[in-house]
């Protein structure tokens, strides 16, 4: 009797794991995976419901079982590597990027570690002890806004947003959201701009969602590799200041010293042209300093003036005055 109960419990855990790994299963598929009859599957589904798991069932040939969401979150079954991956993700989240999420991530991590077996706790604690997180600065994103956008992407709902452009001007846009992309410290949204009738990449920290709906008919994405598409869009986005600098160093050397979004064109084996853009002349000056090479710059005049100010400041500092 006890062995039968253990077999049943193990089968329930396996059934729950299957339901968590795929959106929908037919009764026949579950029976085949569990090596039991369809009637046993139905009985096990009833037991899961009694334990609080909201398992929905659709009748008919095309029907099946689906693990839904309930009023309370039931326990999740995670493989060892999955549990460690979740812990790592939660620890990484505390470094920032999403406004107010650090404390929430810590609370979730504490709850998770409380139920870890000793072998997993040792792995996660070792990771924590020998990993140093570098805090980031810059604009953060409202986590509620991320969930609103993600839901609109999932449900193909039109979003009405207020958007602040790079130059500070504000616009109201009607968009069809498709993909969120996280790049470093920034979140971007790839969407079809219904007002411009074109694909656009929006910075999420500059967005405010006004309302969602109705539904839209999905379009073919502008590229197969959305991350690369966003990277190209960011590099080509308009900026307040742009400069073209001739640098007395090989292009391959300079490419190792500056951010990847800066365009470098070789002239010959010992000279190259660097194209940099930013909304701040201070940032352009920083890029030029990072090259650690002699260069010639003629525009914009704001950058030339700023370099003169910085040069005088550095000379004063080097003289100890």
Commentary on this structure:
- The chain is of the alpha+beta class and 321 residues long.
- The protein has 4 domains: 2-67, Arc Repressor Mutant, subunit A (Orthogonal Bundle); 80-129, no CATH class; 143-235; 241-318, Alpha-Beta Plaits (2-Layer Sandwich).
- Helices cover 43% and strands 24% of the residues.
- The protein contains 11 helices and 11 strands.
- It has helices at residues 2-21, 27-34, 38-50, 80-93, 101-114, 118-129, 143-155, 226-236, 251-255, 281-290, 301-318, and strands spanning 55-58, 64-67, 157-164, 170-183, 186-193, 198-203, 207-215, 241-247, 263-268, 271-278, 295-297.
- Strands 6-5-4-3-7 form a 5-stranded antiparallel β-sheet. A 4-stranded antiparallel β-sheet has the order 9-10-8-11. A two-stranded antiparallel ribbon has the order 1-2.
- Strand 1 and strand 2 (64-67) form a beta hairpin.
- The chain is elongated and about 85 Å long.
- The N and C termini lie far apart (89 Å).
Strands across the major sheet, in which order? 6-5-4-3-7
CA(first)-CA(last) distance = 89 Å
H and E string: HHHEEHHHHEEEEEHEHEEHEH
List low-pLDDT spans. Answer: 1-6
Integer-rounded radius of gyration: 27 Å
> What percentage of the residues does DSSP assign to strands (E)?
15-25%
Mean pLDDT: 81
Number of structural units classed as domains:
4
Roughly how much helix do the residues carry, as a percent range? Answer: 40-55%
Structural class: alpha+beta
Q: Please provide the count of β strands.
A: 11
Largest sheet properties: 5 strands, antiparallel
Shape verdict: elongated
Number of helices, where a helix is a run of at least 4 consecutive DSSP H or I residues: 11
């Amino acid at each position: 009797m006890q062995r039968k109960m253990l077999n049943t419990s193990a089968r329930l855990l396996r059934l729950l794991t299957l339901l968590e790994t795929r959106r929908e299963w037919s009764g026949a598929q579950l029976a085949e995976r569990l090596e039991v009859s369809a009637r046993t599957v139905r009985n096990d589904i009833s037991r899961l419901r009694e334990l609080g798991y909201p398992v929905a069932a659709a009748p008919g040939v095309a029907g099946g079982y689906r693990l839904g969401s309930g009023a309370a979150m039931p326990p999740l079954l995670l493989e060892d590597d999955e549990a460690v991956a979740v812990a790592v993700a939660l620890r990484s989240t505390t470094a920032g990027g999403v406004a107010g999420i650090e404390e929430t991530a810590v609370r979730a991590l504490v709850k998770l570690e409380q139920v870890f077996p000793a072998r997993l706790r040792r792995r996660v604690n070792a990771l924590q002890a020998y990993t140093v997180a570098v805090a980031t600065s810059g604009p953060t994103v409202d986590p509620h806004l991320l969930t609103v956008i993600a839901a609109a992407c999932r449900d193909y709902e039109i979003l009405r947003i207020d958007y602040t452009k790079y130059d500070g001007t504000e616009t109201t846009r009607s968009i069809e959201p498709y993909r969120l992309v996280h790049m470093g410290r920034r979140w971007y949204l790839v969407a079809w701009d219904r007002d411009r009738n074109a694909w656009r990449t929006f910075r999420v920290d500059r967005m405010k969602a006004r309302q969602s709906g109705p539904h839209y008919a999905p379009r073919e994405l502008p590229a197969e590799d959305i991350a690369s598409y966003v990277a190209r869009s960011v590099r080509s986005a308009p900026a307040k200041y742009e400069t073209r600098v001739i640098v007395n160093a090989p292009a391959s050397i300079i490419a190792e010293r500056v951010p990847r979004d800066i365009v470098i064109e070789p002239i010959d084996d010992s000279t190259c042209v660097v194209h940099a853009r930013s909304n701040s002349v201070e940032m352009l000056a920083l890029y030029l300093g990072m090259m650690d090479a002699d260069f010639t710059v003629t525009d914009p005049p704001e950058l030339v003036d700023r370099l003169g100010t910085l040069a005088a400041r550095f000379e004063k500092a080097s003289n100890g005055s």
